[in-house]
């Protein structure tokens, strides 16, 4: 089975080697969408003081201890370490509406890759990892645990759900499934969790916004929105095709009724609504596509190099 169409457990396990060179926490490079407090209020884990040592090039000048520097005659800086207990909860959309793709992979595959990368990255950081997986057949909850076995269970469940999508009939994207999953996530989180919502741009509505806003008051929420090039812009005419959402069948013709202009405009408006909603709630929204694997896209979005070999750890 091609993992670009249906993500396999083996392909998601293999992503543990790609889960580096990016972080969903605060203190990002200035090129990251998570950098700065205006775009995000990512708290990260709490910080505990470790030691005072000599200043090194690249150290944050805000951490210079001026009293210690005056006593020793050399510039001294305070070193902090992050607390190691920060639960990460993945809310993952695996509805049939995501089983679509025209370039490198399906949206389902990129969604699963993104969630797997976040799971491995969180585990590497010493965090507990949990998930709320949802599709047309209901919700599956995984309580957070700090273990490789817990991540493997989540990846296995995502792979199994994705495999079922290949045989499932198409259905339109409905907000009900997303909102039910968000309510389940809201009931699970307490304070200072990282909540990562991974899906496409179609299902969210005002109710989704309200639930996310409540969670974002005491937790860090990040959205990864996956789209396909065909959703962003139709190829230039002349051509015709047939499309269905499982309920309706329609003829696609970019020259008919201004469809060629309506599709990119509609998608742009949808992304703008998601971004504006995220900004008002201080929730970063990371748009990625099906044109290439998720890992290099996340590294670019989060301010690191496209190849993990180019990133200093």
Task: Give keywords.
2 domains, DUF58 domain-containing protein, single chain, vWFA_dom_sf, globular, 313 residues, Rossmann fold, alpha/beta, DUF58, 9 helices
What fraction, in percent, of the residue positions are helical? 25-40%
Distance between the termini: 34 Å
Q: Would you tell me the structural class of the helices and strands?
A: alpha/beta
Strand content: 15-25%
Number of strands: 10
Largest beta sheet: what is the strand line-up?
A: 5-4-3-6-7-10
Number of domains: 2
- CATH-wise, what's the superfamily of the largest domain? von Willebrand factor, type A domain
Largest pleated sheet: 6 strands, mixed
CATH architecture of the largest domain: 3-Layer(aba) Sandwich
> What is the top-level CATH class of the largest domain?
Alpha Beta
Radius of gyration: 21 Å
Order of helices and strands: HEHEEHEEHHEHEHEEHEH
Taken from the alpha-carbon principal axes, the silhouette is: globular
How confident overall, as mean pLDDT?
84
Q: Counting H and I runs of at least 4 residues, what is the number of helices? A: 9
The CATH topology name of the largest domain reads Rossmann fold
Low-confidence stretches: 27-31, 35-42, 309-313
InterPro entries: DUF58 (IPR002881), vWFA_dom_sf (IPR036465)
Pfam families: DUF58 (PF01882)
Organism: Neoroseomonas marina
Domain DUF58: 51-237
């Amino acid at each position: 089975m091609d993992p670009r169409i249906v993500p396999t457990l083996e392909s998601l396990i293999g992503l543990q080697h790609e889960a580096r060179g990016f972080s969903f926490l605060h203190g990002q490079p200035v090129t990251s969408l998570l950098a700065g407090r205006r775009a995000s209020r990512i708290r990260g884990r709490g910080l505990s003081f470790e030691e005072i040592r000599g200043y090194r090039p690249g150290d944050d000048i805000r951490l210079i201890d001026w009293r210690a520097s005056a006593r020793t005659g050399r510039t001294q800086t305070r070193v902090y370490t992050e607390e190691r207990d920060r639960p990460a909860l993945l809310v993952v959309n695996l509805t049939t509406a995501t089983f679509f793709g025209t370039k490198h992979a399906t949206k389902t595959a990129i969604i699963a890759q993104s969630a797997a990368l976040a799971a491995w990255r969180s585990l590497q950081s010493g965090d507990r990892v949990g998930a709320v997986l949802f599709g047309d057949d209901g919700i599956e909850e995984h309580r957070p645990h700090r273990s490789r076995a817990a991540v493997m269970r989540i990846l296995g469940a995502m792979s199994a759900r994705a495999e079922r999508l290949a045989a499932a009939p198409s259905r339109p994207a409905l907000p009900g499934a997303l909102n039910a999953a968000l309510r389940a996530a809201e009931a699970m989180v307490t304070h200072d969790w990282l909540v990562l919502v991974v899906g496409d741009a179609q299902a969210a509505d005002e109710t989704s916004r309200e639930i996310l806003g409540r969670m974002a008051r005491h937790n860090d929420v990040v959205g990864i929105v996956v789209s396909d090039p065909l959703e962003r812009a139709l190829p230039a005419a002349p051509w015709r095709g047939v499309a269905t959402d499982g309920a309706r069948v329609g003829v696609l013709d970019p020259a008919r009724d201004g469809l060629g202009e309506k599709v990119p405009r509609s998608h742009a408006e949808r992304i703008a609504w998601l971004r504006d909603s995220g900004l008002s709630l201080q929730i970063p929204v990371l748009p990625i596509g099906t044109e290439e694997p998720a890992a290099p896209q996340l590294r670019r979005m989060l301010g690191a190099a496209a190849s993990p070999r180019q990133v200093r750890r």
